[in-house]
Every structure is written in C-alpha cells, then in structure tokens.
Amino acid sequence: MKLFPVYKVLAYVVGTLLLALTIGMVCKYLFPEGGTIQSFGETFTPIVAVGHGWIYMAYVVAALLLAMRAGWKMTFLGLMLLAGLVPGLIFWVERRVETKIRTEAPALVG
Asked: Where are the domains of the chain?
C-alpha cells in the first residue's frame, strides 16, 4: 500500500474535523447561554474534539513515516504536524506536500 494516499485522506479528514470543531467552539462560546445554538455547540464540540484527537494521532504517524521515507527535513515535518492544529492550514500544507512528493519522491505516490 502506498503511504501518500493514506496521508492525503487523513489530512482531509483531520482538516474537516478541525473546521467542524472550530464551528462547534464558536457556537458553544459566542452564542447566548442556554440558546439552541449554544446547546448544539456544547453537545457537538466534545464529540468532534475526541474524533479529531484520535484521527490526528493517525495523521501524525502517517506524516512522520512519509517524511522519513521522502527524506524531508524536520522543519517541513513540523509544518505538516502544525497544520493539523490550525484550522484551514492543513489544506494548504497538503497541496505543498503533494507538489513536493511528486517532484522529489514520485515512487511514494500511489
């Protein structure tokens, strides 16, 4: 099995869950207490947070293995890992990873 497609799917899932978590946090903390939207945020946030946390761990492993196989520097790996913690950044970083891997290590692309 090629590692890059696994990384790509995990990146999109982590990014989507992080955006959903951000929306849940906005609903939970920026809307009036006891309202429907605030109540939704209060219920939704812990579920998405746990899902993001578990899938982020799989993303970390996939990013680490991919960076090791491609021979990338630790700074680029750090950017890959940080991207899973900043809403929206992972989509930009995933495109950079795809460009970099296709030029530097095309054998890793499925």
From this structure: 3-108
